[in-house]
Design a protein that fits this description.
globular; Serine Threonine Protein Phosphatase 5, Tetratricopeptide repeat; 0% strand; mainly alpha; 494 residues; 26 helices
Length: 494
């Protein structure tokens, strides 16, 4: 009886002495947990992560999946208390990852990706400096990983976006970025890296395939001026908007930004819902916006649901602004003014659209109803309807310089989309000449779109001049996005 007992004790000792080392494996359970997170089935994801920790305690891929869960929770809900509670998880995960296997390409990649996710989350709460340094640390880790493991594709998914975004920073700020960080890159470099990952994903199993397609589509949309390809990119991905609210958000967002308003409404009205999904009130905001851009009589209902359900920080002011526009176009000026009062009192001004909404509310200037209709229809891709409204608008109804400049600008925008670029350029030239010293964004956007027209015509010199003109105009609203697009344009026509 003594020999078996001794063997048992020795076996316990051996187990302690030869404890399993941390490793990285996308096991079936890890993949399933990741998929549940991406589908916003958070309760199911938590249950799977608990099983993963119990059955594969040394599989450090779990740390990344857990971080995805925290990131989406914070990013969707924008709850400061939840952000503060979950933030400590980041340091715990990074501490463990530093002790993981340095011979694995996942060792540095997971540390970088976790930092990037938290940097994005910090932007929601205006922690800009901390976010910047998180991005810089992530960039250094990714660069080291690319040097050590040049064929490890996840690295280039992240590096591609970082290189492209750095490439949009105006030249007069580039020196500051270089002085404060190691960040560098160009739009072409970032696009090439993402294209490399996509080519790899087409012939290999790749856990981040859908994510890469989405990132590339957004790069094309915002920096590449290729709406059609951006839409095709998300359409040919394996995203399933009928069963995944996050996939619905992505496709509907790209549809809205590429003039496919009816498709956006269809996607959002057919989105999955129920207790098994984490609440995503912003989808109601998007549906309200799409319906408003079609001038639907019931556009107020999704906006009201968003305002009732959302407990976060961003888009609240814009939601009241858009709800006010709806009431104004329905002939209800008192309710418009009530929405403007609520716009002043509620929400934050972190994002540019909320800042713009607040300026309108504080300016106490009633939008011109027909110009507003034309603007909304244009944004929805209903160019013929928008053109008809402007053509029927009596010049005498334009109350002041603002109305006159907006009319000139919107005429150019509509003509550009109706494939009448030479006529559009005439209206843009007038907009720039008459409005470049004003605080409004019309002249800046007119210069940007003129650059796009000349770029499409193959006149790179003229395009450069207009993109530089855009950068020289400093409107109080939408400046960041317009200048970023102009910098991207300069990169294409250099």
């Amino acid at each position: 009886m003594r020999i078996p007992w001794i063997l048992f004790v020795l076996s316990l000792s051996a187990t302690g002495l030869c404890a399993a080392s941390p490793y990285f494996e996308w096991s079936p359970l890890a993949r399933q947990a990741y998929e549940k997170v991406i589908q916003l089935r958070f309760d199911e994801a938590r249950s799977l992560l608990q099983r993963l920790e119990a059955t594969e305690p040394d599989n450090d891929i779990r740390l990344l999946v857990e971080n995805y869960l925290d990131f989406f929770t914070v990013f969707i809900d924008e709850d400061a208390a939840v952000f503060e509670r979950l933030e400590s998880n980041k340091d715990r995960r990074l501490d463990r990852l530093r002790k993981s296997d340095p011979a694995s390409p996942w060792h540095l990649y997971l540390q970088a990706d976790i930092r990037l996710q938290w940097a994005l989350a910090r932007l929601k709460f205006e922690e800009y400096a901390t976010a910047f340094f998180e991005v810089n640390k992530a960039f250094k880790l990714l660069r080291r990983n690319a040097e050590r493991f040049p064929d490890f594709m996840p690295t280039y998914k992240d590096l591609g976006i970082l290189h492209a975004m750095v490439g949009t920073i105006p030249d007069n700020y580039q020196w500051t970025v270089r002085w404060l960080s190691s960040l560098e890159g160009t739009i072409d470099q970032g696009q090439a890296e993402l294209e490399r990952v996509i080519r790899y994903a087409e012939t290999h199993e790749f856990i981040f395939e859908e994510e890469t397609y989405v990132l590339y589509a957004y790069l094309l949309l915002h920096l590449g001026r290729d709406d059609r390809q951006a839409w095709e990119m998300v359409r040919k991905s394996r995203l399933h908007p009928g069963t995944n609210p996050l996939a619905c958000f992505i496709l509907a967002n790209v549809a809205l930004r590429t003039g496919r308003n009816d498709e956006a409404i269809r996607l959002l009205e057919q989105r999955p819902s129920g207790r098994s999904f984490h609440p995503f009130p912003y989808l109601d905001f998007m549906l309200g916006l799409a319906k408003l851009q079609r001038l639907d009589a019931d556009a107020d209902l999704p906006f009201q649901r968003f305002l009732d359900d959302f407990k976060g920080r961003n888009f609240i002011k814009e939601a009241y602004q858009k709800l006010g526009w709806h009431y104004l176009l329905q002939g209800d000026e008192p309710r418009y003014r009530e929405c403007m009062r609520l716009c002043r009192e509620r929400g934050y001004t972190v994002v540019e659209n909320d800042q713009s909404a607040l300026r309108e509310a504080e300016g106490n200037r009633l939008p011109h109803p027909q110009l507003l209709q034309a603007r909304l229809l244009f944004d929805g891709g209903y160019y013929q309807r928008a053109d008809q409204i402007l053509r029927q608008l009596p010049a005498i109804s334009l109350r002041d310089r603002y109305d006159q400049l907006e009319h000139t600008y919107r005429s150019g925008r509509i003509l550009q989309q109706l494939n009448r670029p030479l006529e559009a350029l005439q209206f843009y030239e007038k907009t720039i000449a008459e409005g470049e010293d004003d605080p409004w964004y019309f002249a800046c956007r007119a210069a940007l779109e003129s650059g796009h027209i000349y770029e499409a015509m193959g006149d790179r010199s003229k395009a450069r001049d207009l993109f530089e003109k855009c950068l020289s105009i400093k409107p109080k609203e939408h400046r960041t996005g317009l200048h970023q697009a102009a910098k991207a344009g300069l990169g294409r026509v250099k």
